[in-house]
Amino acid sequence: MPKLMLALDVLDESEAIKISEETSEYVDCIKIGYPLVLATDLGIIKRIKEKTNKEVICDFKVADIPATNEKIARLTLNYADGIICQGFVGLDSVKAIINVAEEYKQVGNSKKVIMVTEMSHEGAKSFMQPIANEIAKMAGKLNVDGIVAPSTRPTRLKELKEIANNAFVISPGVGAQGGDLQEVLKVLDENDYVIVGRAIYLNENPKESAKKYKELL
Ligand code: 3DU
Hints:
With about 220 residues, the protein is α/β, with parallel strands linked by helices. Helix content is about 45%, strand content about 20%. The structure holds ligand 3DU. One of its GO terms (cellular component) is cytosol.
């Protein structure tokens, strides 16, 4: 049974807090990205953690040179339990983030580095899909904690999970993007996460929707 990760892409702090509190009974982890952080500030991560007691992963899809990735990781992991980066930028850029996470681990503070392999939208087929297996191989080589792989393409999800076999998978695409949860459940296991955003936070009753997804999982 995979876990449920809420993608909290709302643009208002009080709404974010309300939804995360309402759904926290059913949600295992909260993912926050540019929409909410840019609409508020980086401290929102801490405030949501305090209200919900959940792990918060920052989805910044960091994709820069090593020196810049390092700065972004340092600022983000000061608050978040994990950070999402892009793999296509190459080994050194991802390693820079892993090094920052290692520093935290050395002082007893576990931080997760999660790397995107292939994205879930249609456009990802053009440039990302052809190189995604290589990116997933790099995930194994670098020993990242997790990878992001698409629920919109269960066959690809399976392939990428198998290639990056030490990493857990977090998978977006179920709900608003139309991914087939039953197919996804054939692939993911108890270490993995199904990411659901709009199908929960845009629902007129986010708590009920989160409950429904948790039960389906
Ligand atoms: O489609 P939803 O509303 O359930 O949200 C999916 C979330 O996952 C959203 O935060 C989006 O930015 C993120 N994401 C993808 O949708 C696809 C990816 O390949 C990686 C992250």
